[in-house]
Structure formats: C-alpha cells, structure tokens
Amino acid sequence: MRRVLEWMFFTYFLINIPIVIIMDSQIVFPSWLYPQSVKDAVSWYGKTMKDPMMLEPPAWYQAFCMCEQFLQLPFFFAAAYAFYKGNCGWVRMPAIIYSAHVVTTLVAILYHIAMHDFSQSKYPGPSTMMERLTLISIYLPFFVIPLLLLIVMVADEGYGSHASIKGPLQPEPRRSLRLKKK
C-alpha cells in the first residue's frame, strides 16, 4: 500500500511542475515573459471555468502563488524524486511542512470560491451552485492529496527507516551476545 501512495504522490508532484511553471507563474511574473499561446491558455481557463482569481487575482491569492513559485516549486522536484525512488526518509519533514502549508492555503481558496460574491468582479466568476462546485472540483485534488500526504507522513514516524519495511528480505534484528550468569 505504501508504494501505491508513493506513486500517487510522485504523480501529483510531477503534474504540479508544469502547471505551476506555465499557468500559476503568470500571476507572479510579468506577462512579457510568456508566449501569447500560454497567456491565451490561462485566459481560456479563467473564462471557461469562471475562475476570476486567475484573471484578476486578489492580493492574498498573489501571495499564495508567490509562495508556490519560490517555496513549493523547488520542493516539487525533490519530492517527485523521493517518491519515485521510494522510502526516502529525508522527504518526511519537508513533506509535512509542504502539505500543512498547502492544505491551509486551499482552505482559504475553497472558502472563497464557495462564499464570495463574484457579481462585482471584472471577470465573471461562478454564480450558480453548479459553477461553484465545478470550480471547487478543479481545486479539490490540490487539497485532498496534500491532506493525504500530511496524514501519511505524520502517522508513519518510521517512514524511510529500514525498520518500517516489512517483507521477507528484511534482516533479522541483532541479538545480544551477553552471557547469562548462573
């Protein structure tokens, strides 16, 4: 089961790399850095999915994207490698920090989508319950998978240690050679 979770985490981090570089970075960096086709992709997404945060991001969302670029993106490469390789104990604490950060930011984003009145937005946002649920469903995997990662890493204190590996190739523990006194 652990290996299945590691492959899921590997896939999650691998998929996040191009999304963050191509899409989310446009919120942080000047538009002249991007070819028109990439700018058009963000515009299409924002208008089609009614996600005004991508087209006219509030300051708090820009701050989240800044953290994503400078804190999370470097971690994505290390995490993808660690979960691809499997049972890398060094990734446990950074994964806990990352996932706690992301889950916290996604709570704010999901709440905003569910409760904000987008009628005054420059770009149309979700106005019906179905539109809100559709947009929430796009963001939800970026909440659920980090939450699962957090649970797995916190619950498995032995992650990455050979003692936590169960199987026929696990060496027997060393026994004491002390002599018993008669």
Automatic annotation (TrEMBL):
Transmembrane segments: 7-29, 59-83, 95-114, 134-155
Subcellular location per the Swiss-Prot or TrEMBL entry: Endoplasmic reticulum membrane
Gene Ontology cellular component terms for the protein in this record: endoplasmic reticulum membrane
Domain of life: Eukaryota
Main subcellular location: endoplasmic reticulum
Listed InterPro entries: EXPERA, Sigma-2_receptor-like, Sigma2_recept
Membrane topology, record value: Multi-pass membrane protein
Signal sequence, renumbered to the chain: none
Keyword annotations from UniProtKB, A to Z: Endoplasmic reticulum, Membrane, Receptor, Transmembrane, Transmembrane helix
Domain EXPERA: start-end pairs: 5-150
Family: Belongs to the TMEM97/sigma-2 receptor family.
Protein name (Swiss-Prot/TrEMBL): Sigma intracellular receptor 2
Organism of origin: Lingula anatina (Brachiopod)
Phylogenetic lineage: Eukaryota, Metazoa, Spiralia, Lophotrochozoa, Brachiopoda
Name of the coding gene: LOC106178093
